[in-house]
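Work Package 3 (structural annotation) set out to generate three-dimensional models for the target panel prioritized at the project kickoff. During this period the team completed the workflow that converts sequence records into discrete structure tokens, so that structures can be stored uniformly alongside our sequence database. As a representative example, we reproduce one entry of 749 residues exactly as it appears in the project archive.
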Amino acid sequence: MAALGPAETGGPAETGGPAETGGPAETGGPAETGGPAETGGPDWPGASNALGSEPSAYLRQHADNPVFWRPFGDEAFSFAAERDVPVFLSIGYAACHWCHVMAHESFEDQETADYLNAHFVPVKVDREERPDVDSVYMAATQAISGEGGWPMSVFLTPDGLAFHAGTYFPPVPLPGRPSFRNVLEAVHEAWVERRDAVEQNARGLAANMAGAQLGGAVRFDGPPEVLDANVLPEAVALLARSEDPDAGGFGSAPKFPPSAVLEFLIRHAAAPSDTADEARDMAARALAGMARSALRDQLDGGFARYSVTADWSVPHFEKMLYDNAQLLRLYAHWVRLGGNEVFTAGEAASVASRCAEWMVDSLKLPNGALASSLDADTVVGGVHHEGATYLWTPESLREALGPRDAEAVADMMNVGARGTVSELGSPLHPARTLTDAESRLWQRVRPVLLASRNLRNQPARDEKVVAGWNGLAVAALAEAGAILDRTDLVAAAEAVAEYLADVHWDSSSQVLVRVSHDSRARGIGGLLEDYAFCTEGFLALYAVTGTKRWYRLAEELILAACSRFVENGHLADSAGESAQVFNAQGQHAALDPFDNATPSGAAGFAGALLTYAAYSGSHQHRLMAGNILGLLPPLATRAPRVAGWLLATAQAALAGPVEAAVAGYDSPLRRELHSALLKSPSPGLVVALQSDDGGSPAGEAEVPLLLHRSGAPDGSPQVYLCRDMVCERPLGDVAAVQARLAAMASGAS
């Protein structure tokens, strides 16, 4: 498997639903090898479905299947070894439409379940709880079948090695895709009749995966190479070649929000260069295209996972916390950058506000944390219908608005007699800038339509809390609150951060737990991405509030991550949570540098290290960030679409990043200075706010960036602008601070 693999197209999550990706039958493998060889029935000890007590919403969706599912773990694999049968591993998530389809067609079918139970140990995995499991078997699935997506269907030896895989299998054969029963029978026959060949192939795949691992690619036992600034404009030029300049974004259908790449482009646009304008224009087209499209729910402001079409007109309707957290931050950062004529700061501010309100209104749990997702499907009359809640017809518009307004809205929002998604209708989207008259009409009818829609059946919510995704939300809500002058959003960020600190972070063991349910953390320890995103969130919240507790928590997480994920000078994505995963990746530590739905753990960690080093003055942690950025040159010149967060971090590193220390006691001027800094687009700008105790010995130890900084002799506040803890003379005027930041961004001394 090549080192870059399929990531040039955005990684496994970027390939769309299985109905769009082709089938594994074209790649050969056991599905072509013959029929069944019966070996007995399901009357072994302990034969039952074991998912009923699992907290995962996805696993509980399958608790009533006649399939004897087990959760992923040593017990399931030991049971397979005892029975001498393969493990059938099915991976998906609660909001996944095609997961529901395969469940209804196959896993709810008694005859299929009987065969599966008789010849395999069936194991269910929630990919959002176990991304370590998902990642390694996704790589195996792509290597075996040439496709990736969910539901993922993988056949494993009892020690966890993959030997056959695919995604969705239908109940009857389709062109290019065998039926699920055909696959089960062929795999069983191969296991019984050609075991040696099956196991040899499995070992060979694991060895190949070990060769493709980048666990040794990041080393911390020496200084990093000097970052070549030329890779950034080269990446901009390469991104321009894959841009869709008409609809915005990159590539063709299916099209996903390119969040990490857009963060890079916004940062690049903030630093004067020959490619800054091109970066700004690409970002504007993508942000505008998504904002005016069906990807964005025009009624409630939340964003769907992706679009089936290149013009963003037909969304895949699941709404994920991680997408909306990243997009909220992006639109707020576009406001901070100032927008342009293609997509104004004012329009971006409206999009950001609605997105934030949707996150809080739709995903906030009673304990203050944010749930993972809303389902793609709505159950109507016991049947799953994709996007049913969100679809409109001319008739349903007339029922809600009356004939005159309904006709105008249907024309304005692309609702025709023939539904673009199904017979249930079309999503509302203008796909362009509204005229002033249309905007007034939309402001009047939007609340009416939303109230009408709220009377429909609603999609289910997956209420598990994922640490890393909530960390992304903390950063987004805090920064959006500061940029949009929304104290309610900052308060929401603080509530999420309090939950993470109280429920997910165990200060005694220095372990961050990845998932919680009903305010109880359980399951595996956090992965590198969880530590990185929570650190990012706490540091962003500290910058906005000046509350030192958040800085201290970020510091604890950074130090714990360095201990947990760095071994023998090498960085890894996980701390060896599963023997089976370790076996499947050839008994090598894995590090995936590619951004997917979220930034890669390595890229997120590099960004967190860089910011922490700017606050703390730690040369060691800045060097560690530089070591990780050593991954960037080959990615930036070959696959920049999957290196967006590394590129954004590199942009911040090349800018300094600039460190701003706000010293002096609280006053209206200090608040103005602080706000001006938070609204500056300077790439990676780090802001520290002196506590009201002035950093006195009686107070908690001050953040290092603020040590020896003080207000003016007359008591008025001052801002110290620094790079690598070396500060210029302090400034006490907002305009002077803004002018100096602009000059520093342009490279002026």
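Residues 345-363 form the longest helix (19 residues).
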